[in-house]
Specification:
eight-stranded mixed beta sheet; Rossmann fold; 11 strands; homodimer; two-stranded antiparallel ribbon
């Protein structure tokens, strides 16, 4: 499948690398190609700058967000929360229309210190904002409830644990579930929470995730839902 | 131990019943004793009215919130979120001072429909509001991340799964952890998330809990944190 991954940071790298390894034709979409390639400083968590990372993934393309999204069948939003709608606007409404848009972003607000709060929550969510702004895209909120290494390789955490899907389009959610199974997620652990407003649940969970991260001292964790 | 459980609803019933069964001297605290005993309609989830419930728990006392809290060593806030601070004010700041106050409430706001939103979240929490209003109480937020039957009997959900503690006082958290162990919680599954501001995490998790409840069709579930 031809897939655009918007975002050149650690989450974009993890998803683009995995998708490319699985044989997909992957183009990373960015605001400005030259700026991205010229960057030499490491990312926020010490991940390599894009040009260095890409040495290991020569099959991954780099293009403007519009070019990447225009040729893609499926788009992944792996930008940070504040940059999500601006980047998707650069990608272009017409290039998103009718396509599955996997939204992996979290509306983190670092302006009040750490752990961050959320810039939208409770009675709305970033997933809903994106779906409203791009009504013809088939937004599926997924994967943003865990560290990006765990997203693409659930075996990084012992045992079975869960990933959530939120979105209005049942067929789009099925296609995302198929992709997640190809990442190693067991079908029984891919939980459909309902419409895109359920993204309030998975985004607000970040408040707990951040404190678990602090308490555990590792980002390599996830939750398993156990039911009677 | 002499324990006051504030709240006569299903959560108060579950906690008072369990604590009494374990041999504690339990008094349920209410706004008005006569009104509570005169109630004949079932509770919100079909639980029995207090007078009927109490037939099975004759050792559980009933008193005004102030009387119950005044004689207790440890107090449990099992009222609904909106009623929590008013009920704790009835209990009396002087009757809470220096004591462990287990806060099991959630700031649910049903005014916008279901699933409910939260009336405080993100940059504050009900746990913090209670701690600020009663600075001499040792508030420990706990247990409110699950159905009340699971709170008092974790074996209602298969496997091991987790309960969280948030609070400023390490000794108070140790005492609450001891109580939870007596309920059947394994020590390794009682997770200290840090200070009372961590209650933002466990309260905001309710947004995910409510949607999991909808997707699973049962309230008998919980999350297990799995870490590498």
């Amino acid at each position: 499948m031809n897939i655009a991954v918007l975002g050149t940071g650690v989450v974009g790298q993890a998803l683009a690398g995995k998708l490319s390894t699985l044989g997909h034709e992957v183009t990373v979409g960015t605001r400005d190609v030259e700026t991205t390639l010229a960057r030499t400083e490491p990312g926020v968590i010490g991940n390599p700058p894009f040009a260095v990372w890409r040495v290991d993934y020569p099959d991954v393309g780099l293009a403007t967000a519009a070019d990447a999204a225009g040729r893609a069948e499926l788009i992944v939003n792996a930008t940070n929360g504040e940059g999500s709608i601006p980047m998707l606007e650069l990608a272009g409404e017409e290039n998103l229309a009718g396509k599955v848009l996997i939204d992996v972003s979290n509306p983190l607000d670092f302006s009040q210190g750490r752990p961050p709060s959320l810039f939208v929550s409770n009675t709305d969510s970033l997933g809903e904002q994106i779906q409203r702004r791009f009504p013809d895209a088939k937004v599926v909120k997924a994967l943003q409830t865990m560290n990006c290494d765990v997203m693409v390789d659930p075996s990084k955490v012992p045992g079975e644990h869960d990933v959530f899907l939120c979105g209005e389009d049942a067929d789009a959610k099925r296609r995302v579930a198929d992709l997640l199974e190809s990442f190693g997620w067991p079908a029984s652990r891919i939980r459909d929470l309902g419409g895109i407003s359920s993204a309030r649940g998975t985004e607000m969970y970040l408040a707990l995730w951040l404190r678990l991260w602090g308490a555990l001292g590792t980002g390599y964790f996830n939750i398993a839902v156990q039911a009677a």
